[in-house]
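Question thread 4412

I'm putting together a teaching handout and wanted feedback from people who do this every day. The idea is simple: show students a protein as raw sequence, then show them the structure tokens that encode its fold, then repeat with a second protein so they can compare. Below is the first pair exactly as I plan to print it.
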Amino acid sequence: MSGLITRRGLLAGISALGAGAALSACGAKTGGDTSKAAGAKADTSGGAVRVGLLNSLSGTMAISEVTVHNALLLAVKEINAAGGVLGKQLKPVSQDGSSDWPTFAEKAQALITDSKVVATFGCWTSASRKAVKPVFERNKSLLFYPVQYEGLEQSPYIFYSGATTNQQIVPALDYLKKQGLTKLYLVGSDYVFPRTANKIIKTYAKANGMEVLGEDYAPLGSTEFATIVNKVRSAGADAVFNTLNGDSNVAFFKEYKSAGLTAKKLPVLSVSIAEEEVKSIGTQYLEGQLTAWNYYQTTPGAANEKFVAAYQAAYGKDKPTSDPMEAAYISVHLWKAMVEKAGSFDVEKVKAASDGITFDAPEGKVTVDGATQHVHKTARIGKVTANGLIEEVWNSGGPIKPDPYLKGYDWAADL
């Protein structure tokens, strides 16, 4: 119960723009002795170096994060089989964030101070990322964060291999607008990503002739959606924009179908439901619904065929791949390329070498933008099919340069 109480206490203090301060304080409190942390150095003395894997292997977010952890392990295995990094094998050290943000901060500090990792890969929710951000910054240690997020952030010690706002949420809104779906209802989990994303959505809507007819949040892990779904049904919206995370999506879509709502009657566009979640929720609840990502298991190309085959050979022929898994997988390969370009595991040298690093990823060619430490990515809208996969119905035609603060959009000037 203590983890749940702590999480609720944190979430109660989170607002769209105030979360950083609240969670930075939390990270500072739970991240360990800062004087000890300042002297923590990665151990590169032996024939192997440790890399940290920091994911929720238990709790409400495990539905999504276990597969990300598996994809990270696959990348490590591939790199080791090809000779490692600078002649050294990678030794993964896994920590369970337990879907609890103070625990993420504690485990991050343990990876840096006790395990002396050369880099860490992981986190999913923005709340977990905000919690560990001060830990990595004060230790000057690198985190590679693999999941789409709400933007409005840059950290000198975080590389973001998932989409920022102009590579997912903005293209999703553009798509809905072009389809004539201009009256939106917003449903999300009650923490920093959905609240900040919805602030951006409302700002976009106001400038683009769209209306937001309602906005509701449920605690992360909530299974009670009757009231919210009833409000959605009676609002007169054209579409629902869904920022629910974790296993709350299971309860939401079951309630949605029970209320007689379907993709044809009132489509839902989700930004945190990928193939793994589709399998867990059930295609009978999701067929025809929309998603916005940068990668699908069905994305064409030799690199993706290789990735899917390797993942299913390791974890089972029935196991799907997904965008966050792919973004996690490529983050390890991108880090390897940075280290080899730098000729060193030294954090500052790796950062200096990052700009322009490319990788032939399953999603297509990706390029690191050294200025923002984000990645150029192609936006894709997909539709859930009866076989549980997601088929692309639109893409941006090529990689989009990351713009985490939406500086290139006049309507976002006051965000």
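The second pair follows. I'd like the answer to focus on this one:
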Amino acid sequence: MVSGSVNNTEVVAEVDVVVIGAGQAGLSSAYHLRRTGFEPDRDFVVLDHSPGPGGAWQFRWASLTYGKVHGMHALPGMELTGADPERASSEVIAEYFDTYERTFDLRVRRPVDVRAVREGPDGRLLVETSAGTWSTRALINATGTWDRPFWPRYPGQETFRGRQLHTAQYPGPEEFAGKRVVVVGGGASGTQHLLEIARYAAATTWVTRRPPVFREGPFSEDVGRAAVALVEERVRQGLPPKSVVSVTGLPLNDAIRQGLADGVLDRQPMFDRITPDGVEWRDGRRSRHVAADVILWATGFRAAIDHLAPLRLREPGGGIRVDGTRAVADPRIHLVGYGPSASTIGANRAGRAAVRDIRRLLTEEPVAA
């Protein structure tokens, strides 16, 4: 690890690889870097803006217990065993990630906010952060989506006198006791919120842009591969990635069946406008109004990649064109946990693939993009 200055920019260190983010994707990448001979602090560094280990999981609501988590795949090299299914997933996974970081001596630096990644001299990249600037030959971006909740805009939204919040701010169901709640969104979070809130709220209304698709039967490997392939095709074309669940549909489990039978999951089409005291549908001269105290936007997230803007990687379609994990416009940059690798098992595989490509890149002479 070498420090110095580049073009009057004080450089904390020069390394071969900077990993941004210490969630599943970042830790998987760091593990594979370590396993293939890269030394932390000397050859690579992991920067994470969160206050502690756990990635986005540490911010999940307390009622999301570990037993309710679907598809949490172990990090490479260490299984998560013996976890109490009744404990909050935020606690279980934060402890697991903490143990993982210490076991493999990954030396994650936090809290460090990455502000921008820019072109540097001699084919290197400059990673500007709240803790100084790192100079690197390659970059693994593993920033996920949690920091970019998507808030749709609807007419009248600013007039609503009640409370509006996003899944990222969801406090748990008890806070909605006695309230009339409109939940917007047809994904897994929306249905989970509804099933929890309905036990406490005075009334709930579920609205989605498209009718929800419920999936019968087991989620086979073939179905999973087909879904990932569709998401992968979008990022290959430079389009913003969609979630895998938008392709696979929602699993029709016992809780969902009960919610459908009870009328909790009685989906309504998207409203036309928001009023000071609720939401409204209009059909010609007729209108229908539902009173609400709260609008909960379970409308998903977008990739947190604004810090890469100086590199001009975005395509006209709005996304970054990716081949595997490599940014097509710049082979020094890999996006892990982006698009098809956003699932936990996908992030593990993508971390390994990114490190393999980076090792190949670093054996060649560095060339500016």
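Top answer:
Good format. For the second protein you could add a caption like this: The chain has a mean pLDDT of 89. DSSP finds seven helices and 19 strands in the chain.
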